[in-house]
Specification:
Length: 222
């Protein structure tokens, strides 16, 4: 597991402009901040944690869908009127970085029932934190798809960099990767975007301290 506090992170970064145009942050409302608070509170029960995590995941997923391409679509309403609307362009998929990324899969399926979801398992060396690939199962035509990459907690960014490398090895275009994330550190954002400047990162919070207990608490492996 990545360290909870990254060294030399003395400043709480609030200026998202420093990360560039490919970085997106969920609009912070009192509701969103309350969800973040419950997830960081060590006294939160596991049942409440899962309930609140799923709510925040849904918000991030819904905003992530806004990053996908749409096409115009005319439909006829039950009253016979023609409505000028939108539909998703075909060719989207999800990829979860196991295990914590799997917590976001249901939120994506709740919004896109038939979406295909691949999986990548990456383990970090406990001493060096170097990310190593253990397993990858991806849609065979992933190179032609937009990819919603799911990983809720990003501390160092090493795991996401390795996952993006795997996707690029499978011919996925960098600009077609959208990272859905709940909490990240400034260092992680800088690392990922320095390595892959065309990847889109969407998160709910940037903070020097990442709640790395997330996966253990969500899956009950504390």
């Amino acid at each position: 597991m990545e360290p909870d506090l990254i060294q030399n992170s003395q400043v709480h970064h609030n200026n998202i402009e420093e990360f560039g145009p490919k970085f997106k942050k969920l609009r912070i409302t009192d509701n969103v901040r309350e969800l973040q608070t419950v997830l960081r509170d060590k006294s939160t029960s596991r049942g409440d944690f899962i309930f609140v995590a799923d709510r925040l995941i849904r918000l991030v997923v819904e905003e992530g869908l806004n990053q996908l391409p749409y096409r115009t679509s005319k439909v006829t309403t039950p009253t016979g009127q023609v409505y000028d609307g939108l539909r998703y362009e075909k060719g989207n998929c999800g990829v979860s970085i196991m295990r914590s990324g799997e917590a976001m899969e249901q939120g994506l399926r709740d919004c896109c029932r038939s979406i295909r979801i691949g999986k990548i398992l990456i383990q970090s060396d406990e001493d060096t934190h170097e990310a190593k690939i253990v397993y990858a199962k991806l849609p065979p035509d992933i190179a032609d798809r937009k990819v919603l990459l799911m990983y809720p907690i990003m501390s160092t960014g090493n795991t996401v960099v390795k996952a993006c490398t795997i996707l690029k090895d499978h011919k996925v275009r960098e600009e077609n990767i959208i990272l859905l994330n709940l909490f990240t550190t400034p260092q992680a954002v800088h690392l990922v975007l320095n390595k892959f400047p065309e990847v889109t990162i969407l998160t709910s919070e940037v903070h020097p301290v990442a709640p790395n207990h997330f996966g253990q608490k969500y899956f009950g492996t504390e």
